[in-house]
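Q: Sequence in, structure out?
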Amino acid sequence: MMRPKIHLHLSTTQTILLSFFLAILAGSLLLALPISAADGKPVSYIDALFTATTSVCVTGLVTVPTVSAWSVFGQAVILILIQIGGLGVITILTGLLIGLHRRIGIGDRMLIQDAFNLNTLSGIVKFIRKVLIGTFVVEGLGALLYMTVFVPEYGIRGIWISVFNAVSAFCNAGMDILAEDSLCRYALNPMVNFVTCILVVFGGIGYIVWWDVIRVMKNGRKRNTKLWRDLTLHSKIALSVTGLLILAGAAAVFVFEYDNPLTMQSYTLPEKIMASLFQSVTTRTAGFATIPQQDLTNASALVSLLLMFIGGSPVGTAGGVKTVTVAVLLVSAFAAIRNREDASLFGRAIPKHAISKAVAVVCMSFLIVFLSTVLLSVCTEADALDIAYETVSATATVGLSRDLTASLGIWGKLIIIVTMYFGRVGPISLVIAFHTRRENSNLIKDPTEEISVG
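A: Exactly. Output:
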């Protein structure tokens, strides 16, 4: 008697979550091999799992130094995992199918739509092709600029360092193979600071903004129209909030660290401005550091916590709750305060479902931060600010730490592993879930009753 075949039907959300999990699992097994370790002795599996998770989730928190713990093979595995995590497993697989001239079915198109939170299935294949080409072009240019610094200093190895750093910066991973203190030794190097900031911002601003700006620039040449006026509402919000946060964050760090003897007291004015700007940009989920985070004043650390939690923009390589989410939430709050029914930005009303998603994403992210902070507090006796810095960094996939990650025990590492995973896929899954509507969900509604709020 033949047994009936069991067909496993996964939703698009479940497929995306499973793809990240399988990438982490495969990466951890490769990193646990002796060939991946610098000294030929296998790294403990918990550290291999932690490194694979932080790579795929493009976080950057590390329990063992990337520069000294891993061989070239191990570093190559990490780099591939970062690229997969930054673009998404679904994007990479679709790119391979496109390269092999295979047909992209409706199921694959729906996966891509959900992975990037797009509103339409139209032009999906063209979108993925542009994403892949654009990513590799920007990363390649970044690597070439890095080479002007690293090749003269490290020789042939400088090429590998440049490529690794470019991919890591664009994907907002924050991992490097330069030193155990990240980019601190290059705090006063304009080229390293400039290139890193540009790559981080380009990766974090979102692909939708890329194509929208290019579209308007092309049309502007033909019609002589104004760039800002013809941008979509999404692009306007992403660009304006990104610029505002970078400038405000840099100004705050500049003021709070100006006379800090552990950070910028000895710097010249231009150097202080550059270091402040880098700190503001890197907290937007990049994770590189030119200033030891444990040496920051409490005020700067608190500002950094807020910037990390917000993160970058949607449909990019950055984490956090996203700039557009926060803008929508704030505008809707001010609309409620002013007793206005509709919230609007740049002369456009914001859809109600967008406000609902913003509330859900922020609430879920805050819940992840709170639970992981409480659990980590049970496992370590570190300072509360250091623990909060760690958990916010993990949830928002930033990678900055106040020198706590390496000292975590097994339970602490497991907590951060789970936090990084949920931080990478949790808010995304929540947004996707809001797109899934049951056929009869709007036919029957519960009765409404007034309540007191606030």
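Residues 433-440 have pLDDT under 50 and may be disordered.
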